[in-house]
Protein backbone atom coordinates (compact mmCIF):
# COMPACT_ATOMS: atom_id res chain seq x y z
CA UNK A 1 0.00 0.00 0.00
CA UNK A 2 1.34 3.44 -0.92
CA UNK A 3 2.26 5.79 1.91
CA UNK A 4 1.29 8.80 -0.21
CA UNK A 5 -2.10 8.16 -1.88
CA UNK A 6 -2.48 9.08 -5.55
CA UNK A 7 -4.58 12.07 -6.52
CA UNK A 8 -7.96 11.09 -7.94
CA UNK A 9 -7.38 11.02 -11.74
CA UNK A 10 -9.43 13.65 -13.58
CA UNK A 11 -10.68 11.21 -16.24
CA UNK A 12 -12.11 8.87 -13.58
CA UNK A 13 -13.76 11.80 -11.81
CA UNK A 14 -15.29 13.12 -15.03
CA UNK A 15 -16.66 9.67 -15.97
CA UNK A 16 -18.15 9.22 -12.51
CA UNK A 17 -19.77 12.69 -12.53
CA UNK A 18 -21.20 12.00 -15.97
CA UNK A 19 -22.77 8.74 -14.69
CA UNK A 20 -24.15 10.62 -11.69
CA UNK A 21 -25.78 13.27 -13.91
CA UNK A 22 -27.41 10.60 -16.12
CA UNK A 23 -28.64 8.54 -13.17
CA UNK A 24 -29.96 11.49 -11.06
CA UNK A 25 -30.18 9.22 -7.98
CA UNK A 26 -32.98 9.44 -5.43
CA UNK A 27 -31.34 9.65 -1.99
CA UNK A 28 -33.23 8.73 1.16
CA UNK A 29 -31.78 10.94 3.90
CA UNK A 30 -32.09 10.09 7.58
CA UNK A 31 -29.99 13.02 8.68
CA UNK A 32 -29.77 15.45 11.56
CA UNK A 33 -32.22 18.24 12.24
CA UNK A 34 -29.65 21.00 11.73
CA UNK A 35 -28.81 20.29 8.09
CA UNK A 36 -31.90 18.80 6.42
CA UNK A 37 -32.75 21.76 4.22
CA UNK A 38 -29.14 22.47 3.21
CA UNK A 39 -28.60 18.78 2.40
CA UNK A 40 -31.73 18.67 0.23
CA UNK A 41 -30.64 21.82 -1.60
CA UNK A 42 -27.13 20.46 -2.24
CA UNK A 43 -28.55 17.27 -3.79
CA UNK A 44 -31.04 19.23 -5.89
CA UNK A 45 -28.41 21.72 -7.09
CA UNK A 46 -26.27 18.80 -8.31
CA UNK A 47 -29.17 17.10 -10.08
CA UNK A 48 -30.02 14.33 -7.59
CA UNK A 49 -33.31 14.01 -5.67
CA UNK A 50 -33.56 14.11 -1.86
CA UNK A 51 -36.31 12.58 0.29
CA UNK A 52 -36.36 12.90 4.07
CA UNK A 53 -38.72 10.04 5.01
CA UNK A 54 -38.12 9.68 8.75
CA UNK A 55 -40.94 7.75 10.47
CA UNK A 56 -39.75 4.18 11.19
CA UNK A 57 -42.42 2.26 9.24
CA UNK A 58 -42.21 4.63 6.28
CA UNK A 59 -38.41 4.73 6.39
CA UNK A 60 -38.31 0.93 6.27
CA UNK A 61 -40.60 0.95 3.21
CA UNK A 62 -38.93 3.85 1.43
CA UNK A 63 -35.37 2.53 1.72
CA UNK A 64 -36.20 -0.10 -0.92
CA UNK A 65 -37.61 2.53 -3.29
CA UNK A 66 -34.73 5.01 -3.13
CA UNK A 67 -31.46 4.45 -4.98
CA UNK A 68 -29.35 5.02 -1.86
CA UNK A 69 -29.71 5.79 1.84
CA UNK A 70 -27.85 8.21 4.12
CA UNK A 71 -27.72 7.64 7.88
CA UNK A 72 -26.33 10.64 9.78
CA UNK A 73 -26.47 10.44 13.58
CA UNK A 74 -25.94 14.14 14.34
CA UNK A 75 -29.15 14.63 16.34
CA UNK A 76 -29.80 11.03 17.34
CA UNK A 77 -32.79 10.05 19.48
CA UNK A 78 -34.53 6.74 20.11
CA UNK A 79 -37.26 7.05 17.44
CA UNK A 80 -34.76 8.14 14.81
CA UNK A 81 -32.44 5.28 15.79
CA UNK A 82 -35.29 2.80 15.26
CA UNK A 83 -35.99 4.26 11.83
CA UNK A 84 -32.29 4.10 10.93
CA UNK A 85 -31.93 0.41 11.83
CA UNK A 86 -35.11 -0.48 9.93
CA UNK A 87 -34.06 1.51 6.87
CA UNK A 88 -30.54 0.04 6.80
CA UNK A 89 -31.96 -3.48 6.98
CA UNK A 90 -34.39 -2.77 4.13
CA UNK A 91 -31.64 -1.17 2.05
CA UNK A 92 -29.46 -4.23 2.55
CA UNK A 93 -32.30 -6.56 1.61
CA UNK A 94 -33.04 -4.55 -1.54
CA UNK A 95 -29.39 -4.28 -2.56
CA UNK A 96 -29.26 -0.49 -2.11
CA UNK A 97 -26.06 1.09 -0.79
CA UNK A 98 -26.23 3.03 2.46
CA UNK A 99 -23.76 5.50 3.89
CA UNK A 100 -22.91 6.24 7.51
CA UNK A 101 -21.94 9.73 8.73
CA UNK A 102 -20.80 9.14 12.34
CA UNK A 103 -21.24 12.72 13.57
CA UNK A 104 -19.41 13.32 16.89
CA UNK A 105 -18.76 9.64 17.53
CA UNK A 106 -16.10 9.17 20.17
CA UNK A 107 -16.93 11.26 23.21
CA UNK A 108 -20.65 10.54 23.48
CA UNK A 109 -21.52 7.01 24.58
CA UNK A 110 -25.06 6.51 23.19
CA UNK A 111 -24.20 7.52 19.63
CA UNK A 112 -20.86 5.69 19.73
CA UNK A 113 -22.59 2.43 20.75
CA UNK A 114 -25.23 3.02 18.09
CA UNK A 115 -22.66 3.74 15.36
CA UNK A 116 -20.97 0.42 16.19
CA UNK A 117 -24.37 -1.32 15.91
CA UNK A 118 -24.85 0.30 12.50
CA UNK A 119 -21.37 -0.76 11.44
CA UNK A 120 -22.42 -4.38 11.88
CA UNK A 121 -25.08 -3.74 9.19
CA UNK A 122 -22.28 -3.11 6.69
CA UNK A 123 -22.52 0.38 5.21
CA UNK A 124 -21.30 0.71 1.62
CA UNK A 125 -19.41 3.86 2.60
CA UNK A 126 -18.53 5.89 5.68
CA UNK A 127 -17.71 9.63 5.58
CA UNK A 128 -16.45 11.54 8.58
CA UNK A 129 -13.82 13.94 9.82
CA UNK A 130 -10.53 12.76 11.36
CA UNK A 131 -11.66 12.42 14.97
CA UNK A 132 -14.87 10.60 13.99
CA UNK A 133 -13.07 8.10 11.76
CA UNK A 134 -10.41 7.50 14.44
CA UNK A 135 -13.10 6.90 17.06
CA UNK A 136 -15.15 4.59 14.86
CA UNK A 137 -12.01 2.62 14.08
CA UNK A 138 -11.61 2.17 17.83
CA UNK A 139 -8.79 4.63 18.32
CA UNK A 140 -8.62 7.72 20.44
CA UNK A 141 -7.59 10.72 18.33
CA UNK A 142 -5.89 12.40 21.30
CA UNK A 143 -2.31 11.30 21.76
CA UNK A 144 -2.10 9.74 18.31
CA UNK A 145 -0.89 12.78 16.42
CA UNK A 146 -4.33 14.00 15.34
CA UNK A 147 -4.27 17.71 16.11
CA UNK A 148 -7.79 18.65 15.12
CA UNK A 149 -10.94 17.41 13.48
CA UNK A 150 -9.51 18.28 10.05
CA UNK A 151 -6.14 16.47 10.34
CA UNK A 152 -7.25 13.91 7.82
CA UNK A 153 -3.75 12.71 6.89
CA UNK A 154 -3.10 11.54 10.45
CA UNK A 155 -6.38 9.59 10.38
CA UNK A 156 -5.66 7.78 7.09
CA UNK A 157 -4.27 4.61 8.76
CA UNK A 158 -7.43 4.43 10.89
CA UNK A 159 -9.57 4.94 7.77
CA UNK A 160 -7.78 2.06 6.05
CA UNK A 161 -8.25 -0.18 9.10
CA UNK A 162 -11.94 0.76 9.30
CA UNK A 163 -12.39 0.00 5.61
CA UNK A 164 -10.74 -3.39 6.02
CA UNK A 165 -12.82 -4.44 9.01
CA UNK A 166 -16.16 -3.04 7.78
CA UNK A 167 -15.93 -3.66 4.02
CA UNK A 168 -16.94 -0.02 3.45
CA UNK A 169 -15.23 2.62 1.36
CA UNK A 170 -14.12 5.17 3.94
CA UNK A 171 -13.71 8.90 3.27
CA UNK A 172 -11.88 10.91 5.92
CA UNK A 173 -12.26 14.58 5.10
CA UNK A 174 -10.41 17.77 6.04
CA UNK A 175 -7.85 20.00 4.32
CA UNK A 176 -7.25 17.01 2.02
CA UNK A 177 -9.91 14.31 1.68
CA UNK A 178 -8.65 10.71 1.66
CA UNK A 179 -10.80 7.90 0.34
CA UNK A 180 -9.83 4.27 0.88
CA UNK A 181 -11.17 0.77 0.46
CA UNK A 182 -8.43 -0.54 2.74
CA UNK A 183 -6.23 -1.58 -0.18
CA UNK A 184 -6.18 1.44 -2.48
CA UNK A 185 -6.64 5.10 -1.68
CA UNK A 186 -7.23 8.40 -3.45
CA UNK A 187 -6.46 11.89 -2.25
CA UNK A 188 -8.77 14.77 -3.14
CA UNK A 189 -7.46 18.32 -2.79
CA UNK A 190 -9.23 21.65 -3.01
CA UNK A 191 -11.99 23.08 -0.90
CA UNK A 192 -11.43 26.03 1.44
CA UNK A 193 -11.18 26.43 5.22
CA UNK A 194 -14.31 28.62 5.01
CA UNK A 195 -16.26 25.39 4.39
CA UNK A 196 -15.77 24.57 8.08
CA UNK A 197 -17.40 27.87 9.11
CA UNK A 198 -20.78 26.92 7.66
CA UNK A 199 -22.81 24.14 9.24
CA UNK A 200 -23.57 21.11 7.13
CA UNK A 201 -20.88 20.95 4.46
CA UNK A 202 -19.69 17.60 5.84
CA UNK A 203 -23.23 16.28 6.33
CA UNK A 204 -24.26 17.34 2.83
CA UNK A 205 -21.10 15.72 1.45
CA UNK A 206 -22.18 12.44 3.04
CA UNK A 207 -25.51 12.68 1.20
CA UNK A 208 -23.61 13.27 -2.05
CA UNK A 209 -21.42 10.26 -1.21
CA UNK A 210 -24.62 8.19 -0.96
CA UNK A 211 -25.71 9.42 -4.40
CA UNK A 212 -22.35 8.33 -5.86
CA UNK A 213 -22.14 5.03 -3.94
CA UNK A 214 -24.56 3.42 -6.40
CA UNK A 215 -21.76 3.26 -9.00
CA UNK A 216 -19.80 0.03 -9.57
CA UNK A 217 -16.33 1.59 -8.99
CA UNK A 218 -17.28 2.72 -5.51
CA UNK A 219 -13.81 3.92 -4.51
CA UNK A 220 -13.52 6.30 -7.48
CA UNK A 221 -17.17 7.34 -7.16
CA UNK A 222 -16.89 8.27 -3.47
CA UNK A 223 -13.69 10.19 -4.22
CA UNK A 224 -15.54 11.97 -7.02
CA UNK A 225 -18.28 12.99 -4.58
CA UNK A 226 -15.55 14.57 -2.44
CA UNK A 227 -14.05 16.30 -5.48
CA UNK A 228 -17.42 17.69 -6.59
CA UNK A 229 -17.88 19.32 -3.18
CA UNK A 230 -14.30 20.61 -2.87
CA UNK A 231 -14.35 22.07 -6.38
CA UNK A 232 -17.67 23.84 -5.84
CA UNK A 233 -16.45 24.96 -2.41
CA UNK A 234 -13.27 26.54 -3.67
CA UNK A 235 -15.09 28.24 -6.56
CA UNK A 236 -17.72 29.62 -4.20
CA UNK A 237 -15.12 30.81 -1.70
CA UNK A 238 -13.25 32.72 -4.38
CA UNK A 239 -16.30 34.94 -4.85
CA UNK A 240 -17.71 35.48 -1.34
CA UNK A 241 -17.10 37.67 1.72
CA UNK A 242 -17.81 35.06 4.41
CA UNK A 243 -20.14 32.29 5.62
CA UNK A 244 -23.35 34.22 4.91
CA UNK A 245 -22.69 34.67 1.22
CA UNK A 246 -21.01 31.22 0.95
CA UNK A 247 -24.22 29.17 1.01
CA UNK A 248 -25.94 30.67 -2.07
CA UNK A 249 -22.62 30.85 -3.94
CA UNK A 250 -21.93 27.19 -3.13
CA UNK A 251 -25.34 26.03 -4.37
CA UNK A 252 -24.82 28.05 -7.56
CA UNK A 253 -21.35 26.52 -8.03
CA UNK A 254 -22.72 22.98 -7.59
CA UNK A 255 -25.45 23.73 -10.12
CA UNK A 256 -22.93 25.15 -12.61
CA UNK A 257 -20.47 22.22 -12.45
CA UNK A 258 -19.79 20.60 -15.82
CA UNK A 259 -18.42 17.11 -16.43
CA UNK A 260 -15.31 18.63 -18.04
CA UNK A 261 -14.61 20.66 -14.85
CA UNK A 262 -13.88 17.37 -13.07
CA UNK A 263 -11.03 16.67 -15.49
CA UNK A 264 -8.81 19.37 -14.01
CA UNK A 265 -6.77 18.53 -10.94
CA UNK A 266 -6.14 21.40 -8.58
CA UNK A 267 -2.83 20.40 -7.09
CA UNK A 268 0.25 18.62 -8.38
CA UNK A 269 1.20 17.50 -4.89
CA UNK A 270 -0.28 17.96 -1.44
N1 LIG B 1 -8.95 23.07 5.91
C1 LIG B 1 -9.73 22.80 4.86
N2 LIG B 1 -9.38 23.22 3.62
C2 LIG B 1 -10.15 22.94 2.56
N3 LIG B 1 -11.32 22.25 2.61
C3 LIG B 1 -11.71 21.79 3.81
C4 LIG B 1 -10.95 22.02 4.99
N4 LIG B 1 -11.58 21.43 6.04
C5 LIG B 1 -12.69 20.85 5.54
N5 LIG B 1 -12.77 21.06 4.20
C6 LIG B 1 -13.84 20.59 3.30
O1 LIG B 1 -15.08 20.82 3.96
C7 LIG B 1 -16.01 19.77 3.72
C8 LIG B 1 -16.50 19.21 5.06
O2 LIG B 1 -15.48 18.43 5.61
P1 LIG B 1 -15.20 18.32 7.17
O3 LIG B 1 -15.05 19.69 7.77
O4 LIG B 1 -14.05 17.39 7.35
O5 LIG B 1 -16.53 17.59 7.68
P2 LIG B 1 -17.39 17.80 9.00
O6 LIG B 1 -18.18 19.06 8.73
O7 LIG B 1 -18.24 16.58 9.08
O8 LIG B 1 -16.42 17.95 10.16
C9 LIG B 1 -15.27 18.77 2.82
O9 LIG B 1 -15.61 19.04 1.48
C10 LIG B 1 -13.78 19.09 3.07
O10 LIG B 1 -12.97 18.77 1.97
C1 LIG C 1 -24.17 21.45 14.80
C2 LIG C 1 -24.72 20.07 14.83
N1 LIG C 1 -25.19 19.53 15.98
C3 LIG C 1 -25.64 18.28 15.83
S1 LIG C 1 -25.53 17.75 14.24
C4 LIG C 1 -24.83 19.21 13.74
C5 LIG C 1 -24.41 19.44 12.32
C6 LIG C 1 -23.02 18.94 12.03
O1 LIG C 1 -22.68 19.28 10.69
P1 LIG C 1 -21.26 19.00 10.01
O2 LIG C 1 -20.75 17.71 10.54
O3 LIG C 1 -21.50 18.94 8.55
O4 LIG C 1 -20.39 20.18 10.42
MG1 LIG D 1 -19.80 16.08 10.23
Structure description:
The protein is built from ten helices and nine strands. A nine-stranded mixed sheet has the order 1-9-8-7-6-5-4-2-3, sandwiched between helices. It is α/β, with parallel strands linked by helices and 270 residues long. The longest helix has 20 residues, at 218-237. The model has no long low-confidence stretch (mean pLDDT 94). It is globular, with a radius of gyration of 17 Å. Bound molecules: adenosine-5'-diphosphate, 4-methyl-5-hydroxyethylthiazole phosphate (TZP) and magnesium ion (MG). ATP binds at residues 127, 173. InterPro entries: Hyethyz_kinase, Ribokinase-like.
Summarize the structure.
With 270 residues, this protein is an alpha/beta fold. Helices cover 47% and strands 14% of the residues. It has 10 helices and 9 strands.
Amino acid sequence: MSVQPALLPGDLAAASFSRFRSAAPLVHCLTNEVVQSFTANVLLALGASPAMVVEAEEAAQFAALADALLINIGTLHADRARAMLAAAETANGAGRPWVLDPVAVGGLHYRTRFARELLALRPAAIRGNASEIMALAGLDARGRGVDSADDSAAALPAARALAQCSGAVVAVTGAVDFVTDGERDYAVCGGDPLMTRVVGTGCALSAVVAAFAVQPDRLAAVATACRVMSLAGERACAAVRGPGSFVPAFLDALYALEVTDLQENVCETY
